[in-house]
């Protein structure tokens, strides 16, 4: 395939006349592994739900160059999705697995294999209704089903929120084994998924405020000049930026400094805590030290 896997243009979503996504333009390539970050309410889940065709919206979403409509079958086949909040399904685990294999083309043996790696004892859960599982068990099962599907894009919305440390580590190993597929991972733990992703998109108040392709080839010693614009001066952010040796304008509304390739994720993770204060972030490659 030549063009992007997914093209989103002029996407707008309004809830009760309140704009939640504002004129978003973003492409997803088949080798993108994206960390989608941003503070609570930034619009990450809404963007994902629009992409999945769950919501009516303004603007276009194209899959492999073809325009898709709400509840489009080809989009649902192309994407394997694990939601932030599990659906309230009453069907027993066995039926959910059967359904996922039939309609989502999931591989049954792979579901069992992945569940085992995540520490989920499927054999003793088969007759239990899905909504009676614990939060972590639900998440493990949905992850197992998603990763067992022949999807082109995996979307995980806060995937490790309910996982215990052992399952979290097993989950990250599993994702590393699926790096040949496109991924979009909405997370508040950027550092946790840092080694998996090659692009970071930050949202704030329904807009994309940062879209940074951290090339897989960005070397430890590569330096990048970062220029920031602030919507309002902030003592806390200025203090943090001073710790990164940034120079800050006297009016407190802009700052710039250098960040090494090896520190990039830690830096972006720090910035994401100040999402609402940043109006623009840009990077310029300066080459190696
Ligand atoms: N179904 C809905 N009806 C009305 N408002 C909604 C609905 N879903 C989301 N919103 C609003 O849209 C905004 C964006 O919500 P969204 O869930 O997309 O944020 P998010 O970035 O995923 O946040 P979080 O990190 O907390 O999961 C919020 O202000 C939320 O209140």
Automatic annotation (TrEMBL):
Quote the InterPro entries the UniProt record gives: AAA+_ATPase, ABC_transporter-like_ATP-bd, ABC_transporter-like_CS, ABC_transporter_ATP-binding, P-loop_NTPase
- CDD domains under this entry? ABC_DR_subfamily_A
PROSITE patterns xrefs: ABC_TRANSPORTER_1 (PS00211), ABC_TRANSPORTER_2 (PS50893)
What protein name is recorded for this chain? ABC-2 type transport system ATP-binding protein
One Pfam family recorded for the sequence: ABC_tran
Q: Name one GO molecular function term.
A: ATP binding
Which organism is this protein's natural source?
Answer: Cohaesibacter gelatinilyticus
Q: Does tRNA-binding show up as a keyword for this record?
A: no
What keywords is this UniProt entry annotated with? ATP-binding, Nodulation, Nucleotide-binding, Transport
Q: Which SUPFAM superfamilies match?
A: P-loop containing nucleoside triphosphate hydrolases
The UniProt entry, under Gene3D superfamilies, shows: P-loop containing nucleotide triphosphate hydrolases
List residues traversing the bilayer: none
**Which residues does the UniProt record annotate as the domain ABC transporter?**
6-230
Family per UniProt? Answer: Belongs to the ABC transporter superfamily.
User: Would the keyword Transport turn up in this protein's UniProt record?
Assistant: yes
